[in-house]
Amino acid sequence: MGETVQRETASSHDADVEQLADALLDAVEKGVDDEPGLVDSALGTVRRMAIDFIRRYNRLEIELETTTLTEPVLFVANHGFGGIVDLNVLAVGAVLEELAVDRPVTFLTHQLAWTLGVGPLVEHLGARPASRDSAREAFAAGHHVVVFPGGDLDAFKAWKDRNHIVFGGRYGFARLAIEEQVPVVPIVTAGAGESLLVLTDGERLARALHLDKLLRVKALPTSISLPWGFNVGAVGMLPYLPLPTKLQTRVLAVTNAGPCEDAEAYGERIRTAMQDALTDLTTHRRPLLG
Predict the structure, then answer these.
(1) Would residue 42 count as lying in a domain?
(2) Are 219 and 152 in contact (CB under 8 A)?
(3) Measured distance CA(158)–CA(275) in Å, rounded
(4) ∠ Cα 153 104 87 (to 5°)
(5) Is residue 287 part of a domain?
(6) Are 194 and 288 in contact (CB under 8 A)?
(7) Residue 39 pLDDT
(8) How far apart are CA 19 and CA 85, in angstroms?
(9) Please, which residues have CB within 8 angstroms of residue 56's CB and are 6 or more apart in sequence?
(10) Which 3 state secondary structure label does DSSP give 2?
(11) Axis crossing angle, helix 87-99 with helix 36-57, rounded to the nearest 10
(12) Do both 26 and 63 map to the same domain?
């Protein structure tokens, strides 16, 4: 029985790889500008394979306090480590599959993706530059919206801070939810900060290099990872091989702003609820094992 399941799993994986290879080959032969649908298909296959990877390799567990969404919502998530290649981003993708969302989803993404030239590519996966205008357009079109409010401050935390949610006073998401009159669904993931060793967040180095002004980046982490070894800055922007840390994700209940609650109070209430959930997930956690 077990061997049959393993053969079926391997066969499914091989089929995905073949589908990805065929899609990429077609895109190259016909040209991505002429056949944008081929790019969507190829990247969609990559996305599904990546989510399947963390479900198995990182033993992803998902707890749902919210199960039904009847209207557009603002998903608010925490970073684990890194930006587009963050395991937490993939965990959010798995959550969307679990919820079986029936409308498009827009991911608000740091402008650095477009600065580095990968923005047009990830747009095929629903990414848009993180701005109020992007969010408003998405809600106007009936989309769900995903935001990681902590940005680089939350994404490049040192090992000692891996179980902390850092928004750095960024409560624009709460103001957006109030203005657009949409509920918020917080998503909290634990474990990704253990997928490598981050020695320091590098905030002082980033300031010294004026990266906050040049690239809107306020952290430049020093880390040790596979296959890059000791590294300053690049890991988190480049893919790396994560250690097999167990990921645990909790989707909190839908929340709305109170009648007289301002954006800062509402945003801090959400962050506190997310931190409480992360603390609960990690209090008895053993690194890598979960």
Answers:
(1) yes
(2) yes
(3) 17
(4) 35
(5) no
(6) yes
(7) 78
(8) 22
(9) none
(10) helix
(11) 100
(12) no
Question: What 3-state class would DSSP assign to 153?
Answer: helix
Q: From CA 286, how far away is CA 68, in angstroms rounded?
A: 32
d(CA 255, CA 272): 13
Give one DSSP letter per residue of 245-265, joined into a string: PPPEEEEPPPB---TT--HHH
Name the residue among 123, 132, 48, 128 with its Cα closest to residue 90. Answer: 48
Reading the block at residue 93, the tokens are 């993708």
Same domain, 21 and 98: no
Give which of 237, 14, 40 is closest to 127, Cα–Cα: 40
Kindly state whether residue 195 falls inside one of the protein's structural domains. yes
Distance from first CA to last CA of the chain, Å, rounded?
A: 28
**Which residue bears the tokens 């890598």?**
288
Task: Give the Cα separation of 181 and 149 in Å (integer).
Answer: 18
* Residue with tokens 């990830």, as numbered in its chain: 122
pTM of the model: 0.86
52 & 150 share domain: no
How high is the mean pLDDT in each 10-residue block of the chain (290 residues)?
42 49 48 63 90 97 93 97 90 97 95 84 91 97 97 95 96 98 98 96 91 87 94 84 97 96 98 98 93
Strands 144-147 and 105-109: parallel
Return the DSSP state at 228: T
Q: What is the Cα Rg of the chain in Å? A: 19
- Residue 241, classed as helix, strand or coil, is strand
Given this model, what pLDDT does residue 270 score?
98
Q: Which two tokens stand for residue 99?
A: 């919820």
